[in-house]
């Protein structure tokens, strides 16, 4: 894996299993697991912005879950942010996730804490101890996502777009090499979704790789970038015109 690669997959097959990091042997998992994708090969480098697109159930979310070790990689070779996915164990998962940022569609915010405390909680949980550095970093990420005046607000007082920006701020706290976003605009209106895409583009320009799953083809037409199509258990890289012919 080169210094520029943040993701490298070779000959990967992805299986869904009920207990991805259980005590079963790889042979048993291969036998019992449901094959989702096969023959997956690609690299993603620092600063790239990449769309994953395909129909619901085509494997986009399963691939993302494999990249952040929610699903175990049991066939092929894969590296993410310097971690070998084939050698991952439960104890390694938290270390990997400190090196990447994850943006969930359902936000997963702490509803009883304000914006500042949502971020403060994550920083303390991931090992930050210096209070002045914590406050400085929170201020930095809130400026990045244009929420610098919202630190005192509770999550329910934010719009949907603002809540998504807070989730992105949370994902940026530990200066990740990679940002993974699973349908981050799925619940947003078109204008708000546009703002989220522009934010991701800026994050990529600053050197963090951004990988975003979506089924929103209008966004890709408006903001074209490298695109990987998921179809019939396989993936292939396509240009925008080719994608709309195939999807």
TrEMBL record:
Signal peptide: none annotated. The keyword Nucleotide-binding applies. It comes from Candidatus Alistipes avicola. Belongs to the ABC transporter superfamily. Residues 7-247 form the ABC transporter domain. GO terms for cellular component: plasma membrane. This is Cell division ATP-binding protein FtsE. The keyword Nucleotide-binding applies. SMART domains: AAA.
């Amino acid at each position: 894996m080169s210094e520029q690669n943040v993701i490298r997959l070779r000959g990967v097959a992805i299986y869904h299993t009920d207990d991805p990091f259980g005590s079963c042997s790889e042979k048993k998992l291969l036998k019992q697991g449901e094959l989702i994708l096969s023959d997956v090969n690609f690299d993603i480098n620092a600063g790239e912005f990449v769309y994953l697109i395909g129909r619901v159930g085509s494997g986009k979310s399963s691939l993302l879950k494999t990249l952040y070790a929610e699903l175990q990689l049991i066939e092929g070779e894969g590296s993410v942010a310097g971690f070998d996915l084939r050698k991952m164990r439960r104890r390694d998962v938290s270390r990997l996730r400190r090196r990447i940022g994850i943006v969930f569609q359902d936000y997963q915010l702490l509803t009883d804490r304000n914006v500042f405390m949502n971020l403060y909680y994550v920083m303390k949980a991931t090992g930050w101890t210096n209070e002045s550095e914590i406050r400085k970093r929170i201020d930095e990420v809130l400026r990045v996502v244009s929420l610098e005046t919202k630190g005192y607000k509770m999550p329910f007082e934010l719009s949907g777009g603002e809540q998504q920006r807070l989730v992105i701020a949370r994902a940026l706290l530990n200066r990740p090499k990679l940002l993974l976003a699973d349908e981050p605009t799925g619940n947003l209106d078109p204008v708000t979704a546009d703002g989220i895409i522009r934010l991701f583009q800026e994050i990529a320009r600053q050197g963090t790789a951004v990988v975003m799953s979506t089924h929103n083809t209008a966004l890709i037409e408006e903001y074209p970038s490298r695109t990987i199509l998921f179809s019939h258990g396989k993936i292939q890289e396509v240009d925008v015109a080719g994608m709309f012919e195939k999807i």
